[in-house]
Amino acid sequence: MESTKILDAKGLACPMPIVRTKKAMQELNVGDVLEVHATDQGAKSDLTAWAKAGGHELLQDTEEDAVLKFWIKKG
């Protein structure tokens, strides 16, 4: 999936992946896609809930080699 920007949040514990994601989203335009890489297992539920609450769309999430990857479209 193509993304506008990639955010490396690997090695960060809650709530830092959300904090960094929120900051990165502020730099994007509506419709842009942010790709987030995280290793904190809590990020899956946190980012899903955060995207929904913020009016963004979680397009896809996968896990590869213990790295969670999320594609979030800015709403």
UniProtKB/TrEMBL annotation:
Transmembrane segments: none annotated. InterPro entries: TusA-like (IPR001455), TusA-like_sf (IPR036868). Belongs to the sulfur carrier protein TusA family. Residues 7-31 form the UPF0033 domain. This is Sulfur transfer protein SirA. Pfam families: TusA. It comes from the Bacteria. It comes from Virgibacillus massiliensis. PROSITE patterns: UPF0033 (PS01148).
